[in-house]
Amino acid sequence: xxxCKSYVGGQWxxxxxxxAILVDASTEEPIAEVDATGVDMAAAxxxxxxxxGPALRALSFAERxxxxxALSGAIYEHREELIDLSRxxxxxxxxxxxxxxxxxxxTLAAYASFGRKLGDRGFLSDGDGLQLGRTARFWGQHIRVxxxxxxxxxxxxxxxxxxxxxxxxxxxxxxxxxxxxPGTSTAxxxxxxxxxxxxxxILPEGAFQFICGSAGDLLDHMRAQDTLAFTGxxxxxxxxxxxxxxxxxxxxxxxxxxxxxxxxxGADVDxxxxxxxxxxxxxVQDMTQKTGQKCTAVRRIFxxxxxxxxxxxxxxxxxxxxxxxxxxxxxxxxGPLASAAQxxxxxxxxxxxxxxxxxxxxxxxxxxxxxxxxxxxxxxxxDADADVFHSDEVxxxxxxxxxxxxxxxxxxxxxxxxxxxxxxxxxxxxxSWAEEVxxxxxxxxxxxxxxxxxxxxxxxxxxxVLPNMIHGGPGxxxxxxxxxxxxxxxxxxxxxxxxGFKGTIHSAFGESAPE
Length: 515
Hints:
36% of the residues lie in helices and 22% in strands. With 515 residues, the chain is α/β, with parallel strands linked by helices. It folds into two domains: 41-257 and 479-509, Aldehyde Dehydrogenase, Chain A, domain 1; 261-466, Aldehyde Dehydrogenase, Chain A, domain 2 (3-Layer(aba) Sandwich). The strands form six sheets. It has a seven-stranded mixed sheet with strand order 16-17-18-15-14-19-20, with helices on both faces. The chain has a five-stranded parallel sheet with strand order 11-10-9-12-13, with helices on both faces.
């Protein structure tokens, strides 16, 4: 049994309470325990503010970027070990484990390159300077400087490596130390990544701390210069945003929450086209990759009503070729859900959806006596307007086909009923239809991904989160933004207007920040 400890104040610390037990998602055998009871959260925050923050702020963007590059390399050296842990603790196939681990190292490397381009300063100029007086002598310039606090990150269970490192990359490049708190059920992978970070000795003391177990009273000790970034359910996100201490100190909060992501097939798309093939490929991948436990996974599939039978048959056939099995078996393309709680939630969610739909394939029945295995499940809505399809996210290998007229106006209305999303994908060679739908759904989404025959062979899938474009969305998706290249640094920085003599202001703080 592995004991996953917390790293705070420059030391690894065991909890003093009753530990939570982590299990092998395929066999349900205990493999590790986690507990953060007794960890002094106030001291951890103080250590980050007083030791980690000054050390990072003393470095330029280029120097911080060099740290991230070295960190990416250190984690990559342990790639095979981390893949094996992901198979065991998170139930990942080799492909899914690589998706997580390589996402972590790739994002660190991307932010390292951003740091190199930002150069030898430790702050950013924000836009052009402005003449404020009768002459140019009185001048103003906006700049962004690192906040003098700690970035507290509460991460989700589904991407224990990537989810952790994408937040780390932004904060450290901005010059802000971090405290990472992983999702408990897959904390073994996150803990091993944390061990690698600490053992590497790459980061300044206090720049990186790690809480393995309950966050306890951590939020009670946060102050105005600190920031909180959370990935998880909208219910938990709402509780965090409403935390009395965070409100009292006006602590900035970034939420990345539930999202009923859509794939919309245009009425013009011919079954023989590259766009149609890409639609099938992307929907099946987003339903089954990471066993559907992915914030960008497709949950609602909008298909013109006169083509529902044809399209559904194609999707069922493609899903039937997905081999569900032990992550260690080479032929397996989808493993188990990550935990017993997740397994129970997804089964209950399928049964709820089935009250308003028909199962085309799959269902809530377990596939094995042991482990958290379910089949990919495709449902056909009896009524595309039924509330359940637009209000309840089933976080597993589950999606529903929703018939619609094919008109842009109806696509817009139904997609937006999701209340705000991370990404919606559109498939059409009709440029005017696509433009109308994009403009109609854009206010409710963080990303809109548009496919046609001309880009089909060269596109990355809509479920792929890229470090140089924002990841987030409004409404039920949390209203926050992560990544986005240099834009991602803004959450950890204070924008301030500096005003005075142009010669002084311009020479010290001028020049616009790179995009």
